Amino acid sequence: MKKPIVILVALIAISCSKNGGGGCVEPSAFDLSPFTSKSQDQALNEQLVLEYLNEAGENVFENNTYDPNEVTVGTNGQYYQDVVDLYNEETKFLIWINGYSEGKNSYTISLSPTSSKVELLTVYTTVTDFNSCSGPIFAIDSVFYNSEIKSLKEISVGLKKLTITQ
């Protein structure tokens, strides 16, 4: 009786290690091609950063037109500060947009607490993969800024930038 139990435990351990461990399903185990044009091989969430430039092409945070510490991004009734990256060279003085769910994601952006102007950002996403260990993997399908569709520039793998000129 002892031998069959040991064999059963060994088989379970081997099968779990082949599919990511802990009973996790391999990425791309689900065929989502009918729902998106994005690659099934996408293994990470696409991220979005916003760059604000003045008419001369200067970053408005770098030239102190706006204080990066005063920027607020709101979504789903929650408001976040410390959204401007001040440290990473690749994304320095850019605003990070996070917290996607599948479909329409709406954000408000205020560059200054003394300004009454609030920018509107809408990000449409698709789940390109789901893993029971890591959760959903999102791809950005389209972006609207103040109700106008915008083009994104890929600045590195999985990182897209929207440039706004004020």
From TrEMBL:
<protein>
    <submittedName>
        <fullName>Uncharacterized protein</fullName>
    </submittedName>
</protein>
